[in-house]
Structure formats: structure tokens, C-alpha cells
Amino acid sequence: MLLDELADLAADRVRDGRLRLMGEGGLLVELTRHLMQAAVEAEMDLHLAEEAGRTGGRGSRSGGNARNGYRPRKVITEVGTVTVQVPRDRLGTFNSSLLPKYARRTGGLEEMVLSLTAKGLTSGEIVAHLAETYGMETSKETVSTITDKALDSMADWRTRPLDPVYPVLFVDCVNVKIRDGAVANRPIYVVLAVTCDGHREILGLWAGDGGEGAKYWQNVLAELQNRGVRDVLMLVCDGLKGLPEAVNTVFPQTVVQLCIVHLIRTTLRYISRQDWDAAARDLKPVYTAANEDEALARLAEFSEKWEAKYPAAVRAWERSWSEVVPFLGFPSPIRKIVSTTNAIESLNARYRRSVNACGHFPNETAALKRLYLTTLALDPTGRGRKRWTSRWMEAMNAFDIAFDGRLSAGRA
Length: 412
Known about the structure:
alpha/beta; five-stranded mixed β-sheet; two-stranded antiparallel sheet; 7 strands; Transposase_mutator; Mutator family transposase; transposable element
């Protein structure tokens, strides 16, 4: 009851402005300081008692180890900066587990910085946020040091074992600005998989230089293979150069499907805006046809109408036809899934917001670290995962039938 009364009194004083909650001198800061002080005092008592037991009870000031004053330590916590008087011992054997030697911040602060980084805040914005909200004096260098701790976990994440079979892989890229002498756009490729249970899983992030070809993609796919992937039913991409050839080498049974939405966008680049609606309307019968023969007939009609005016638009479909038609041989549930990379577009939108907030990065490692932290922050409640899984259940059954049980073999 006494604790409740004290809490009510403190709340009243916070409301009427007589007591601050955060920042220097704030209630939470003072409470944190008292708790941390009590904790390190208890650690010292335990340490001296253990040493006394090991040395036959010689724990007095006249014989064995004993307290020997204090040293002040400023510590940045998740509620603000506190100063703790860390006790010292005569023999110098005490080291607090709560405040290890040279530690200047708590784990809670590091988690907060990582979370704010993952949500797209820059180092400068995080410093300003911590100063305004918690009265903390930090620096961009401190924030960078904290986020660098994610590099080890990122390395583990990028080499973790994967499932043996995936029904679909979506491959796309996010362009980031990296300073390498001069600031230039560099692609970071993301591979998003749908698991046999209908869940989304980001398999990894890879930095490129914009000139990737079959050899580059063969290395990426071989890396996935080395992490345990034995079969991929379909791979959906946006016309990445050399990728289909690499897929045929590493996973020869995999069907490569071009994203129809991206192909439509490419087609419209060759067409005047005033004709966009009419051209898009004439293209729809091509990719919604019942089979390849009907699709070819509809493409011929599109060509007859538009080739004289926009020949490049027609050539875009003709060049990509072998990667356009695979999904026409599948039932509707599979078509809805693989005719577009919408599954990865929402992810890329989050990535773009995060990298655009930074402007540019000093190197590709910094860019990868940023995207990795953003990945960790995706759908923390799991609600999106449940919605996604329910949408994919029908497609999972269709995949298993269309690919002769290869999906079931992956679940076994």
C-alpha cells in the first residue's frame, strides 16, 4: 500500500509540473540511479563474502579484502544519464556484472538504439531524440558503435541454414547511395522466399556493383545451395541480367518467371502517356489468356495495333516471351502469386524509407547493416505473417499438384 501511495503522490507531482519524469533530475532517472546503486552495493557485499569464504574468513579490514571507497561512473540508461558510485575493494578483484569495467551504457539503451535505427532514424535523429526525450548526451559515434554490434549477428543471419525446398523465391533489388570516391547508386539484392508452410522468409542480402551477370548470380545461388537449399519450384524476378542462366545451372528444375507488373511498366516507358490506358487495356488479354496459344494470338493483336507507333513496346514482350509464359501453364492460385513481385514490393518500400533517410552510406557494409536492422523490425507482432499464410494456403496445394509432389517431399 505504501508503494501505491508513493506512486500516486509522484504521479500528482508530475502532472502539476513539480516533478519531472525524464531527463536530469527526473523521477525515473533518480529511481534508476538508486536501484543501480543498491545493486552494485549488493554485488560488492556478495563478492567480499565469497572471498572471505575462500580465504578462511579473512574478510576484515585488518586481514583480507575489504571495501576501499568509490569511483563515480556516468552511465547512459534507457531513461537518461545517471551517475553511480561504484564501490572499490582493497585488492582490486571486484568487477560489477551490472556495470562491467569501461561500460558506459546499459543493454536497454543499446536495444533502443537498434530499434530506432531499424525504424529508419539516422544517427543524428537518434541523438536528438534521446536528448529531447530522455536528456541523454550521446553522439553519432556512440550510436554507430552500438549498431556495429549487429555486424556479428548479421554475419550469422546471412549464413544460417535454410530449408531444403522453397515453392517460390522472389528476387529484387534496392538501390542505395554509397560513397566510393564519389556518391553513386549501388544495388543491394534481396531474396524473399515463401516456405512450404506459406510463411515469408528473407534468405539474405547481397551487395552488387550494377554490372552483375550469370557468374555473380551463380555465386549467390550456390551460396543458398551451400546453406541447405536443394530445390526451388519457381523463381520470380524483374529481368535481372544473367539470373535465368544461373538458375538453370544451379537449380535446373526451377521455373523462372518474369514479373508481369514490371514488364508492363517497362512497356509503358516506350508509350506516350496519352496512350497508357489504351495500351494497358490491350495488354491485359495477353497475360490473362487461358494458355500460351491464346496469349500469342492476343500479343499478335497488340502488335498489329501498336507496332507501327511504338515498336520498342512490342519488342519488350517478344524479347522476354520465354520468361513471360511459364505461369500461363499453371492454375489460377499460382498465377495470382507468381505473375508479380508484389510480395517483395512492400518489403522494398520499407527498405527504401530506411536507406533514403540516411542519404548515402560510407561503404556497402554500412548499407547492409542498415537493411539488416530494418529486416529485424519487420512485422514484430506476427499479424502480417498470419494474413500472408492464409492467402497462400490455396496456392500451396496447387504447387504440390503442379510440381508432382516436390513440395511434399520438402516438408518430409
